[in-house]
Design brief:
heterodimer, A: alpha+beta, 3-stranded antiparallel sheet, 19% helix, B: 2 strands, globular
């Protein structure tokens, strides 16, 4: 059979030679290896201070986008909820009243938009289904909680904060 | 007389504090060395580079709940860590930390006491050290602990023989048991390691075994004996056991540098004496002694994170059938060389 690497050796049980039987050369060899590791660069990332960059296509916590005038994009069409394979999204729709034009972009809006983060599998199908450019998965992580009910994220946690213009994937400004 | 007592008291306190401080930071250094060898950074959160880690560990140890098993022998159970610590600290009293300081025309020895049987004293105290582990393991009333302490005592007995024989060749050369005289002998004749490489190797291996360091850490082998003799211990009593190990490590490093590496002697002593005053020179000597000791502590740690543990039969084989005959051979060879050199003259 052909070998995959040239590093495998056939184990033979034989009498040790004198040098092998006093172990010292082997021990010094081992100590040389550990010494080399002692002076090696450490791959540790000092987490809270230093964060590893995410992949450009990373899918984290969702965001409900606003348009340039700060109006919510979502029209509560429910396509995301339909597309969701984990059935994590629950939407209650409502009609826009007079005087609310500065809040919602179209006549219908989501009165409540809940995502159960324990069900969500972060597949990004909601993002793909959305016709209104409303829901995106950001680079943010979903924080841990002590209670299961705290994992149901409502509009208070999902809607993009007012006054931020941001890249759909991150909150960072667009870069060309 | 009073001033003599005062000097001694101050030196005792200083040696005690320094020993504890170094043992404390050895725990930190051990974790740092372990981290670096395993491509990690080691503790670095408590203070810069984690130098407050020993304090945090100490506070943690004191805060932990103290558990005494119901079936344990309470008096012995409480006594054992104390014995371990006591014997570990007692050894530091005969180690020559430096030559002497001149303060107001008086000579202040940088050594607690220079008894003329210093080496015998060290041996006596070190072999008592096994009682702490033995009693701890026995009083816990736990099978693992008992196994650990049995191993500890058999290991100590086996390796003390070879250690003693390795030392006898040094004592034959220097003709004295006092550590200070051995160090001063090396100032004239060069370091003992040059004449006794085999003796040093045997002594070093036995020192590892006496300190219960890897590859001889069978008494506490955390994998198969769940901590061995200190399985049942918690809180500061466990802390004392672990701490005693580091004190022992420091002391045996100091003994090795005194016996084989010239102790507090400086190279080019005569030239340096023209530049520095006597006191500076003495302190420099102490610093070099400490440096050698730290080097040994580092080597101890380095070995610990390189070599796996011996199997029990390998341990006994190494002690009785390799080290002991080698040490005997070394004694005979040293004797022959000394005899020839006497006849030559």
């Amino acid at each position: 059979m052909e070998k995959l690497t040239n590093r495998s050796r056939v184990v033979v049980k034989k009498e040790m030679t004198f040098l092998e039987s006093i172990y010292l050369p082997a021990i010094f060899g081992g100590m040389w290896i550990t010494l080399k590791h002692f002076f090696k660069r450490k791959p540790t990332i000092q987490y809270p201070e230093e964060k590893r960059p995410f992949s450009f296509v990373y899918r984290g916590k969702h965001i409900l986008k606003r348009d340039e005038q700060g109006r919510e994009n979502c029209t509560a069409c429910g396509l995301c909820a339909v597309a969701c394979p984990a059935e994590a999204i629950t939407i209650v729709a409502a009609e826009r009243k007079k005087g609310e034009e500065h809040l919602y972009r179209e006549e219908k809006y989501a009165a409540s938009y809940d995502i159960n983060m324990l069900r969500c599998i972060f597949c990004g199908l909601c993002e793909e289904a959305c016709p209104k450019d409303a829901v995106y998965l950001t680079e943010e992580l979903v924080p841990s909680q002590y209670d299961r009910k705290d994992f149901i994220f409502g509009k208070d946690k999902l809607v993009q904060p007012l006054g931020t213009s941001a890249h759909p994937k991150t909150y960072k400004p667009y870069k060309k | 007389m009073e001033i003599f007592l005062l000097d001694k008291t101050i030196i005792v306190v200083i040696v005690f504090l320094i020993t504890l401080l170094i043992a404390m930071y050895s725990t930190w250094a051990e974790r740092k060395v372990a981290g670096f060898i395993q491509d990690r950074l080691g503790p670095n959160r408590a203070g810069i580079f984690g130098i407050l880690q020993p304090l945090a560990d100490g506070v943690k140890m004191f805060m932990k709940e103290e558990i005494i098993p119901t079936q344990a022998d309470k008096a012995l159970f409480v006594m054992a860590p104390g014995i371990s610590m006591l014997t570990a600290l007692l050894t530091s009293s005969v180690i020559p930390w430096g030559s002497y300081l001149e303060i107001n025309g008086r000579q202040v020895m940088l050594q607690i006491t220079d008894i003329n049987i210093g080496m015998l004293y060290i041996f006596a105290v070190v072999s008592t050290g096994v009682y702490g582990i033995m009693i701890g393991g026995w009083a816990s009333n736990n099978k693992y602990s008992l196994m650990g302490s049995l191993r500890a005592s058999s290991q100590m007995i086996s390796y003390e023989l070879a250690m003693g024989l390795a030392l006898i060749s040094v004592i034959m050369m220097t003709g004295t048991l006092s550590l200070k005289s051995i160090v001063e002998y090396q100032a004239i004749n060069g370091w003992n390691i040059i004449y006794q490489p085999l003796g040093f190797l045997i002594f070093f291996i036995c020192a590892l075994a006496e300190c219960n360091r890897t590859p001889f850490d069978l008494p506490e082998s955390e994998a198969e004996l769940v901590g061995g003799y200190h399985t049942e211990y918690s809180s500061m009593k466990l802390g004392l056991f672990l701490f005693a190990e580091y004190v022992n490590m420091f002391i045996s490093g100091a003994i090795m540098s005194a016996l084989f590496f010239g102790g507090y002697n400086l190279p080019f002593h005569d030239k340096l004496a023209t530049i520095f005053s006597h006191n500076t020179l003495a302190l420099l000597g102490t610093a070099s002694f400490m440096l050698k000791t730290f080097m040994f502590i580092f080597i101890f740690m380095w070995i610990r994170w390189t070599v796996p543990r011996f199997r029990y039969d390998q341990l006994m084989h190494l002690g009785w059938r390799i080290l002991l005959p080698l040490a005997m051979f070394n004694v005979v060879a040293t004797g022959v060389v000394i005899l020839i050199s006497i006849l030559w003259k």
